[in-house]
């Protein structure tokens, strides 16, 4: 055992000296109970020694490894540990309780399983957990997770996916609120609260009339001649002279997105039983905002009526008409090919929904009506299209200002 003032330089000198034959302890000359030890394998560990109860057995709490924890940080941690012991708090027992508690991964997974939510939301949360939360902090004990660790995780995730990093923090925060109510973590504990998140800007990409015309031409080419140069690897898309032909269900889905303003999953999950062709309605039992009725235009109905009925889903997937039929998973590959061919490389599928709304706003349709067509639960969501809604506002301004101008003699 040796006594010295534990500083960064002093610890460095000890670790560089000849390796000991057995574990050697070094105690601080100023803070009683603070020290570090060095093993024959040249591993150094800071610790704090204390008695949890006057006269009780002395306990030693590991604070962290030399090299990972700085000497001044270890000193401060030791000071808090020793002070807590004087107040009757046994931090060693707390550490044992932490080891017995569940991990962050388990807490979030339990929240996803135990919380009542839509299947699509649950799927999204599971992907977020597996892809973002688990690799960063999944193995950390839920009760031991700190806000600093969460902020670092958010920063790491942000390097690859800025918006997904924010979604991961929202999920983590919700899981802690849920867990605190059930005693999984201490009441009020939420290390994901007040995390600095990435600034998000609403995407505003609308197709122009020229772009819509090019997209229409490309879809007709896709379902007849096929898209050239980038043949699909899918066995379901036959190749013709280095072209990939996309069937009517792919182009039909894109047309429905444009003509209805529906969300992608609302179209891909649509069943024939939900199409009321007599009244021209789609009766969606479970959209993002709950039950939803979509009023169809004549053009949208024409697209639906022209689609081959294969299986129970309107947009037939690879499992169509089989015993275990499921809806088509996505349109990523065909959309990339079609959009690229049409020169719309920066257009996402969700932008087709925005285009539907922008055309309505540009034609002077009221924002409440646009919100109703899109199925917005919150009127504020539709306000993003307000800047396109200029004609009715200009007409009102002209009417009011015209009367005032007449009264004061402007323009005469």
Describe the overall structure.
- By secondary structure, the protein is α+β, with helices and mostly antiparallel strands.
- The protein has three domains: 2-100, Double Stranded RNA Binding Domain (2-Layer Sandwich); 104-181, DNA polymerase, domain 1, CATH 1.10.150; 209-392, hpI Integrase, Chain A (Orthogonal Bundle).
- It has helices at residues 8-16, 71-86, 91-100, 104-114, 119-137, 147-158, 162-181, 209-223, 248-260, 264-268, 298-306, 332-341, 350-362, 367-374, 379-382, 391-408, and strands at 2-4, 24-28, 34-38, 44-50, 59-65, 227-228, 243-244, 275-276, 281-287, 290-295.
- The longest helix is centred in the middle third of the chain and has 20 residues, at 162-181.
Layout of helices and strands:
Elements lengths: L1 E3 L3 H9 L7 E5 L5 E5 L5 E7 L8 E7 L5 H16 L4 H10 L3 H11 L4 H19 L9 H12 L3 H20 L27 H15 L3 E2 L14 E2 L3 H13 L3 H5 L6 E2 L4 E7 L2 E6 L2 H9 L25 H10 L8 H13 L4 H8 L4 H4 L8 H18 L4
Parallel strand pairs: 1-2
Antiparallel strand pairs: 2-3, 3-4, 4-5, 6-7, 8-9, 9-10
Helix pairs in contact: 4-5, 4-7, 5-6, 5-7, 6-7, 9-11, 9-13, 13-14
């Amino acid at each position: 055992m040796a006594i010295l003032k534990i500083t960064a330089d002093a610890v460095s000198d000890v670790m560089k000296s000849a390796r000991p034959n057995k574990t050697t302890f070094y105690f601080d000359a100023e803070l009683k109970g603070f020290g570090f030890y060095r093993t024959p394998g040249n591993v150094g560990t800071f610790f704090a020694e204390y008695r949890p109860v006057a006269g009780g057995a002395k306990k030693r709490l590991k604070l962290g490894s030399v090299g990972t924890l700085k000497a001044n940080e270890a000193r401060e941690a030791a000071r808090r540990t020793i002070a807590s012991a004087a107040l009757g708090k046994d931090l060693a027992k707390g550490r044992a309780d932490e080891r017995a508690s569940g991990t962050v991964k388990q807490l979030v997974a339990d929240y996803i399983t135990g919380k009542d939510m839509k299947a699509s939301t649950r799927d999204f949360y599971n992907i977020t957990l597996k892809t973002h939360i688990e690799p960063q902090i999944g193995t950390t004990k839920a009760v031991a997770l700190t806000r600093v660790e969460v902020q670092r995780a958010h920063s790491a995730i942000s390097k690859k996916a800025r918006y997904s990093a924010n979604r991961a923090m929202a999920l983590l925060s919700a899981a802690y609120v849920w867990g605190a109510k059930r005693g999984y973590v201490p009441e009020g504990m939420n290390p994901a609260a007040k995390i600095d998140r990435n600034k998000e800007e609403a995407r505003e990409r609308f197709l122009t009339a020229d772009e819509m015309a090019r997209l229409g031409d490309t879809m007709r080419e896709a379902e007849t001649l096929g898209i050239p140069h980038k043949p699909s690897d899918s066995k379901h898309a036959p190749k013709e002279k280095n072209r990939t032909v996309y069937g009517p269900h792919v182009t039909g889905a894109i047309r429905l997105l444009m003509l209805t303003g529906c969300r992608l999953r609302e179209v891909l999950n649509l069943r024939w039983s939900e199409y009321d062709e007599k009244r021209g309605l789609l009766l969606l039992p479970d959209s993002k905002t709950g039950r939803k009725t979509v009023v169809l235009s004549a053009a949208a109905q024409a697209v639906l009526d022209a689609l081959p009925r294969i299986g129970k889903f309107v947009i037939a997937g690879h499992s169509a008409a089989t015993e275990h039929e499921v809806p088509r998973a996505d349109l990523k590959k065909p959309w990339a090919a079609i959009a690229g061919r049409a020169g719309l490389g920066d257009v996402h599928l969700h932008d087709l929904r925005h285009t539907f709304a922008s055309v309505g706003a540009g034609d002077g349709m009221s924002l409440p009506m646009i919100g109703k067509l899109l199925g917005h639960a919150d009127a504020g969501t539709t306000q993003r299209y307000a800047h396109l809604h200029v004609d009715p506002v200009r007409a009102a301004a002209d009417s009011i200002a015209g009367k005032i101008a007449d009264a004061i003699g402007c323009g005469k």
